[in-house]
Amino acid sequence: MTESITASNISVSYSGKQVVSNVSFTFAPGSLIGILGPNGAGKSTLMKAMLGLIRKDSGTTRIGSNSIDKKRKIIAYVPQRSNIDWNFPIVVKDTVLLGTYPKLGLFHRPSKADKAWAMECLKQVGMQDFADRQIGELSGGQQQRVFLARALAQKADYFFLDEPFVGIDVSSEEVIIEILRKLKDAGKTVLVVHHDLSKVKSYFDELILMNKELIDAGPVEQVFREKNMTRAYERPMTMFDDLEVQM
């Protein structure tokens, strides 16, 4: 059974300049959560800090009563595509198979069952026909699907995706969001760094809205409101009239 995820007082500085300031929130399991804010708001930094991938000034992340370090095997992370070496010589099926490694244990190699599961994950994202392709030969959307398949292969309960919809085709975006919805419906917790305001209401049921500090966190209808958006984006909400932001 999955548990709530809680961030408490997370702050991060780079070269003495604070980029995330005292952010706290709690979400119940079975949530599809968008992390929203303008460029430079600290969205990706917050996600990395929660996962312990970068040094924090302060703060903790807990899953239930446990530190996130004790839950590593049930956490999957999909980084931004720009942070991945696409020239690394690895084929698609082996990329996905890497998702099984955290649960294999020391000195164990993937079994036939692990390889079959990796192929099943490729089928879920519609990429089984590309299993023997080099990862660098794929389009941006195809690459993103493969990395989602790798996350699925981990059999994780908590999924962290950093800007998964940037630079991908419409069909890949539709495949990815549908899988994320299914994960949520299965009781998984999914956090997504996101930038496209027009998709917020159709993609997420919960939001973290920030601009270095937390503006608001909670259900979309609570957070995605004129007052909050004006504060976060530091512009009048007339800029977003077509986005049906709550008045």
Automatic annotation (TrEMBL):
Transmembrane regions: none
Report the residue ranges that make up the ABC transporter domain in this protein.
5-237
Recorded protein name is Metal ABC transporter ATP-binding protein
Q: Which UniProt keywords apply?
A: ATP-binding, Nucleotide-binding, Transport
Gene3D superfamilies listed in its UniProt record: P-loop containing nucleotide triphosphate hydrolases
Pfam families attached to this UniProt entry: ABC_tran (PF00005)
- Top-rank taxon: Bacteria
UniProt-listed InterPro entries: AAA+_ATPase (IPR003593), ABC_transporter-like_ATP-bd (IPR003439), ABC_transporter-like_CS (IPR017871), Metal_Ion_Import_ABC (IPR050153), P-loop_NTPase (IPR027417)
GO: which molecular function terms?
ATP binding
